[in-house]
Each structure stands twice: as structure tokens, then as C-alpha cells.
Design brief:
Order of helices and strands: HEEEEEEEEHEHHEH
Number of domains: 2
Structural class: alpha+beta
Shape: globular
Largest sheet: 8 strands, antiparallel
Oligomer: single chain
Strand order of the largest sheet: 4-3-2-1-5-6-7-8
Radius of gyration: 24 Å
Amino acid sequence: MSEKQREVLRIAWSMTLACIAGSAVLGVVFVATERYAEAARAQGERRAITELLSLDSTATVVEIRQYLSLEPRAVVYRADGADGGVELRFSLDGDLLERQPLAATAGDETDGLEPLGRIFVAEENGAPAGFVIEGASRGYKNVIRFFVALDRNFEVAGVRVVEHEEDPGLGAEVATPWFQGQYLGRAAESLDALEVTKDPMPEDWRAALDQLARMPEADWEDAYGPLAGRMREGPIHAVSGATISSEALTRGVRTTVDHFRRRWALIAPHLGGAS
């Protein structure tokens, strides 16, 4: 082998080692970054749940994961719990097919299961404190992911957009406290008829909603309760120039709460110590 050939081999070998080392470093960085991002998402979600339901440090939150089983066709609920949790399987007609303990590894096994969102059940001092339901709706540009909180009386305790790609200054306004505040205090059963209007929002109502981010909710209710009570009987006022985004979130809230009400009636009697 000539000197020139040996030099070419040395260069090729050096480049190969560099590529392998670079790939390894990138892989480690990706895994570490992904784990950090996942931990940050989980922390942000827990903070949102705590704020939406005004929970204190003594509250406990049970996560219920919902899936559609493709074969056989069934709806699956996996609820964490102090005793290891429980898995419930229902037919598409709502009949209970199976109830079994959630094995330590089963909670992470999702082969053949299509995610349908999550329900977070909060308890405070041994009593139900409310629910937070994960929902999603197609917006103007992409999917809007959000949480809807219901108090123990099934009134909307808050709506929080947690992920979206709507345009800044337009559709992105659905993620602001003033827009999300329009859902606050509405009874779950009233959401079936909830619509969006393009009519201008009354100035006094907009001024009241702007205060939601500046004062505790209880104080806000004391200050603006009569006005809020009147406005809750009407529609949601769309963001100017972003009717599609406004309707998307409203439709998502309406559908998510409707699904939750029907699902909760099915699964609540079977959760046992999981909630």
C-alpha cells in the first residue's frame, strides 16, 4: 500500500471516528434535552392545574389517561392511585368490560392504544376539589391544546391554553386571561348552547376581564360578580380578526366538557381508591 493510500485511509478513519463521536454527543444532548423538556412540561401542567383550581399544598391530584383500543375496540381508562391504580375497559356503547389493577409497568404500555386526552381529579382535605380536563381543537394554523377546569359543582373554574401556534396579536389572543375569562363561572350544562359572536365586546366587560390577571379570583368575583353574571348568560365575544381561533377554542371547550360529563358518569363508580 502506497503512502498516499495510507494517508487516505487515515483521513477516512479519522472522519469516521469524528462522526461517531459527534453522533454520540448529539444523542446524549437530545436525550437530556428531551427529558428536561418533558419535566418542564409536567411541572408547567401541575402549576396550571393548581392555579386553575386554587389548590393548596395539601391537595392531591390523580391523573386518568384515556385511550381508544383499536383491537379489540374499547375505551380504556388508566388511573393512578396509592394502591397502584386501576385500569377500566368499556365497550363503545359504555358497558364495563373489565376492571383490573394497573400493574407497575402497564401505565407506560400504549401499543395499540390511541390517546384520547387526560383527566386530572383533585382532592383537598379528603373531599373532591374539582377536575381539569385536557382538550384540543384545530385552530387557524394548528392544534390548540388547552385545559378546562371544573369545580366540584361542575362550573367552569378556568380555561388555560397550554400550546398553540396562532398568530401573535390575532389568534394568539385566545391564550390571554381576558379572553379565557369569558368561560369562567359558566355551568357545564350551559356550554352545549355556547356560541361565539363577532359583536364588539362591551367596554365595561373588557375592562373587568383585564383585571383577572391583576387580582385574586375571589376578589374579582366580589368586584365584578353582577356584571359577570349577566355576561355569562350571553355568547363568547370573538377576538377581532380571529374568529376562527375564537370559535376553535370555544368549540373545543364545549366538546371537551361534554365528553367529560358522559365519561365521568361511567368511570366514577368504578375508580374505588384511585380517586
